[in-house]
Design goal:
Order of helices and strands: EHEHEHEHHEHEEHEHEHHHHHH
Structural class: alpha/beta
Distance between the termini: 65 Å
Helix content: 40-55%
Shape: elongated
Amino acid sequence: MSKPVIGFIGLGLMGGNMVENLQKRGFELVVMDLNKDAVAAVLERGNAREASSGKDLAASVDIVMLCLTTSAVVEKIVYGDDGILAGIKEGSVLIDFGTSIPASTRKIGADLAAKGAGMIDAPLGRTPAHAKDGLLNIMAAGDEETFAKVKPVLDEQGENVFHLGALGAGHTTKLINNFMGMTTVCAMSQAFAVATKAGVDRQQLYDIMSTGPSNSPFMGFCKNYAVDGVSDLGFSIANANKDLGYFLEMVKDLGTRAEIAEGTSHNLEAAVAADMGAGNVPEIFDYFLKLEK
């Protein structure tokens, strides 16, 4: 059976590595990105072309993949005059690998279904290095038939591919996951800052806490920065702030509140306002260290 033609929009660090992996595995690609150097790198590897618009891309591929920054960007590329919805073919599938608002995902899915196309939301876990080797964690959601259609391609991109239920469940799960992770980072970073102000050695605090049930990989990332000065969790404060905002919007849509998430979001927003948004999340330790009553 011949491989499906894949259109890919969003050639950042994660998306670019995902495309390289797909090319190594013999897929034909049609790509789009504002970064022409990123596009040129794809074309140089061969068996690929650049699309002139979302409409052009969608009309010429079997699967459209998005790895974009925000729901607003996704909606713009889908609904623009020359967007994906204007060119999508009956029977094709759109996969959104970004972290998006579930309500937006379900709206796009309904509009695609009206044109005979399917949608899968499939946010990602792990790093760009894993993407290059096809070893991502993929949190996919959508109807069983659509998921079955694209699963062979997802298996080429992910070591662990989860099917989580109806469309939107992937983005819901990713937002819950990021709420938990970023709250842990904020809490541990503040713990290190309070220890410093109290005259407690940060290494000793880590040695004690890491032997108990509070230990986690996120604690390790926080220790690496607060104790060793190594910032090795490749996820920015600005991205964490965006995701917590999406989580709170989702919670509001569910008719409830998440007061702990509100606190995490407040900290992240304050760090962004202090021009720290480009730093990796554990660097919020510096914000807490300078915090005064």
